[in-house]
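Researcher: Structure for this, please.
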Amino acid sequence: MKKKRIVIALGHEALGSTLPEQQKAAARTAKAVADFIREDYQVVITHSNGPQVGMIHTAMNEFCRLYPEYTATPTSVCSAMSQGYIGYDLQNAIRTELLNRGIYKTVSTVLTQVVVDPYDEAFYHPAKVIGRVMTKEEAEEEEKKGNHVTEVEGGYRRIVASPKPIAAVNPIAILIATINTNSISILFFILVAILPNVFPNETGKMHQAEDSLPVILSIVC
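Model: Predicted structure, token format:
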């Protein structure tokens, strides 16, 4: 019999904006996920990483400002950091909740990437605000680097695009091994899959879309 499927969407603020807030939010989410897994649902979780990538981007920028000898951290790397950070808390919370209920399944976090169109309209009209508030001089320096900025209360902040995904670069495979006629699962991975953005150039080589935020898709089976 085919499994029932349900989608759980965690919005922009659903995971909080600090480590304690995220851990509490992940614990609440894990309870809901475990409820559905116990009822034999296939659960798909989608969520934002805006506050997390913004916090990391700000921290890395401040570090580079204080220590100029260190290389600035690209947005794509900050996104990957946020994805591991979110996945770590989600997988730990889900694993703990499942174990508390006597459900023994492996929980893993897998980072992957999606392809986006380099001509996506989002790149021409970036709207996602990230990073700390900058002075006018700092904003002008960012623009010289090719980054987009916008004026906000107290100064300026960077803005990035949020393009639509086209396809996965490295498709996620979930292996379920079964034995006997009762289809007993002996290997069952729960994947928290995170998707940064890339796009192909003329030769097919993938480039990170540095001025965009990733699309987030988590899969729990």
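Researcher: Any notable elements?
Model: The chain is about 35% helix and 35% strand. The mean pLDDT is 75.
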